């Protein structure tokens, strides 16, 4: 397990990558929004540079991550999902750009190679979350604007298998706290968890949900244990697992190692699952339906970036254990999982 010292402070960025992913394990009958090949792309290297690389690893093994290919630019605060064939990279903040972009990129999960452009979101944004039922992909919330920061409560939708632009599908119950939230899902329902009121703003503990096939305005689901932002999480066909990122406890910001879980079809408050091996926020995640992994992240005090990959078994509560390492220790990276 390694850590890296932050070289210089970064301000004005609050985001994360990742989210509920996509795809099924080859030869199985499990749903298609997840699989055994995990991906982690982009991210903030804390030295004034962002990454364009995409890494992959098998979730079911202890092998370290390896290089897969590159994005079309150096990007942080991207979100990802998958459909059984293509991994979808949604927008983010691009190095040397004055605005967040609206790009949607994709890559073939079974073949090493670079990402290509597939379409655009309806608005420029970053720090959003993503989810997929295997047919439709969704971009959920996020922040926009470099000055006069605002959050967006929009839920955008696109067809996963074909190139093209996204369209407006509905709205979240609270459009002011969508920055650095996380969305977890099963085959039909997506639950958006936590977030912040904007660029370094106040954390919230709320969760809301929507049905992906209809993608109408979301409904209150329940609460997290603590107001939290820069979360990470993923889901299988029953349960969503969520790392709390940075929280507000007794008026103070705390970098958390706590994992919580929800039963996606049963509205209610989140329940304690266990702990990560290291407290951190802005991690990325993936699942093969049985195991979830949490990659990289940032922690304070100390300004550490982590190259660790933790694992948990989703249907059995307990603490995470160290599984492997990524190639590049970053934070605010995007992620998904798919078939090899």
Mean pLDDT: 87
Determine Rg (CA atoms, Å).
Answer: 17 Å
Q: Order of strands across the widest beta sheet?
A: 16-17-18-19-22-23
Number of helices: 0
Give the amount of beta strand, in percent: over 45%
What's the quaternary structure here? Answer: single chain
Structure classification: mainly beta
Number of strands: 32
Low-confidence stretches: 1-30
Largest sheet entry: 6 strands, antiparallel
Residues in helices, as a percent range: under 10%
Q: Quick one: overall form?
A: globular
Task: Give the termini separation.
Answer: 26 Å
What can you see in these coordinates?
The protein is built from no helices and 32 strands. With 340 residues, the protein is an all-beta fold. It has a six-stranded antiparallel beta sheet, with no helix packed on it. Strands 5, 6, 7, 8 and 9 form a five-stranded antiparallel beta sheet that branches. The two termini are 26 Å apart. 59% of the residues are buried.
Structural descriptors:
5-stranded antiparallel β-sheet, 6-stranded antiparallel β-sheet, 340 residues, 46% strand, disordered N terminus, mainly beta
Secondary structure layout plus pairing:
Blueprint: E1 3-5, E2 37-41, E3 53-58, E4 66-70, E5 75-76, E6 79-82, E7 86-94, E8 100-108, E9 116-120, E10 129-132, E11 136-140, E12 143-144, E13 150-151, E14 154-159, E15 167-171, E16 182-185, E17 189-193, E18 204-211, E19 219-229, E20 232-235, E21 239-243, E22 246-249, E23 252-255, E24 258-263, E25 271-275, E26 284-287, E27 291-295, E28 298-299, E29 304-306, E30 308-313, E31 321-325, E32 334-338
Antiparallel strand pairs: 1-29, 2-3, 2-32, 3-4, 5-7, 6-7, 7-8, 8-9, 10-11, 11-14, 12-13, 14-15, 16-17, 17-18, 18-19, 19-22, 20-21, 21-24, 22-23, 24-25, 26-27, 27-30, 28-29, 30-31
């Amino acid at each position: 397990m390694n850590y890296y010292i932050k070289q210089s402070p970064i301000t004005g960025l609050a985001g994360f990558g990742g989210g509920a992913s996509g795809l099924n394990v080859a030869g199985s009958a499990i749903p298609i929004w997840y699989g055994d090949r995990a991906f982690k792309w982009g991210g903030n290297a804390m030295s004034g540079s962002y990454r364009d690389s995409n890494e992959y690893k098998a979730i079911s093994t202890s092998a370290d991550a390896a290089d897969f290919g590159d994005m079309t630019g150096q990007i942080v605060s991207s979100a990802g999902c998958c459909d059984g064939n293509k991994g979808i990279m949604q927008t983010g903040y691009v190095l040397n750009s004055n605005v967040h972009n609206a790009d949607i990129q994709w890559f073939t999960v079974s073949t090493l190679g670079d990402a290509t452009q597939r379409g655009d979101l309806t608005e420029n944004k970053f720090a959003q979350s993503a989810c997929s039922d295997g047919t439709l992909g969704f971009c959920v919330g996020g922040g926009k604007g470099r000055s006069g920061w605002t959050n967006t409560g929009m839920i955008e939708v696109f067809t996963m298998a074909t190139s093209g632009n996204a369209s407006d599908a509905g709205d979240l119950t609270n459009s002011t706290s969508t920055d650095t939230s996380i969305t977890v899902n099963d085959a039909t329902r997506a639950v958006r968890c936590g977030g912040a009121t904007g660029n370094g703003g106040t954390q919230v503990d709320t969760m809301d949900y929507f049905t992906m096939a209809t993608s109408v305005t979301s409904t209150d689901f329940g609460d997290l244990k603590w107001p939290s932002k820069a979360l990470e999480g993923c889901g299988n066909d029953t349960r969503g697992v969520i790392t709390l990122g940075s929280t507000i406890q007794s008026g103070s910001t705390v970098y958390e190692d706590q994992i919580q879980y929800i039963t996606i079809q049963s509205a209610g408050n989140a329940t304690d699952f266990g702990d990560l091996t290291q407290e951190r926020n802005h991690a990325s995640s993936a699942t093969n339906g049985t195991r979830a992994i949490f990659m990289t992240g940032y922690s304070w005090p100390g300004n550490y970036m982590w190259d660790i990959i933790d694992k948990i078994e989703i249907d059995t509560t307990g603490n995470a254990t160290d599984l492997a390492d990524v190639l590049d220790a970053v934070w605010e990276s995007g992620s998904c999982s798919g078939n090899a």
